[in-house]
Amino acid sequence: MSVEEWREKSSRIASHLLSSLLFTQAKTILAYSSFRQEPDLSSLFAEPKQWGLPRVEGKSLVWHRWKAGELLLTGAYGIFEPDANSPILEAEEVDLILVPAVACDRLGYRLGYGGGYYDRLLSSPEWSSKFTIGIVFDFACLPELPVDEWDRRLNGVCTETGLIITK
């Protein structure tokens, strides 16, 4: 898609999140740095929330506190990440996780880039109860995806056409 279309659709996704009670009531939200034309949520970072962005450490994601304007470094996969010395966010502090995806289905299953980072995170006891919303463009929100035993179902999916609560 063109840069203009990507920006417009990303803006509409952000608008749906902003009007969601889940978002407005959350104090601490985990998000991501857009990569490979994933929906760009950077307009949300001006909201008065505590934000967390992930760093890849080994086979895990470690979540760091981050504020708009703070330095981001290029990580192992070419994705912008917070500095390793920035403060870490613990699971008990987090209210909402915005999960990037290559595709999602209407049941809440997602297809990622294949590293299993989010599946491992969401399978761990301290993170499994957190409310999760997959973020994709509408063309990547499919009726159904193949599901493996390690796949974790998300609580919702947000596209430029709206927010779907899946469970």
Strand and helix layout:
Elements (H helix, E strand, L loop, with lengths): L2 H16 L2 H5 L2 E3 L19 E8 L2 E7 L5 E3 L5 E3 L13 E5 L2 E3 L4 E2 L5 H7 L7 E5 L5 E2 L13 E4 L2 E4 L2
Parallel strand pairs: 1-2, 1-6, 6-9, 7-10, 9-11
Antiparallel strand pairs: 2-3, 4-5, 7-8, 11-12
Plain-language structure description:
With 167 residues, the protein is of the alpha/beta class. Strand 2 and strand 3 form a beta hairpin. The chain has a 7-stranded mixed beta sheet, sandwiched between helices. The mean pLDDT is 93. The longest helix is centred in the N-terminal third of the chain and has 16 residues. The protein has 3 helices and 12 strands; from the N terminus they run H-H-E-E-E-E-E-E-E-E-H-E-E-E-E.
Key attributes of the depicted protein:
alpha/beta, 167 residues, 3 helices, globular, 3-stranded mixed sheet
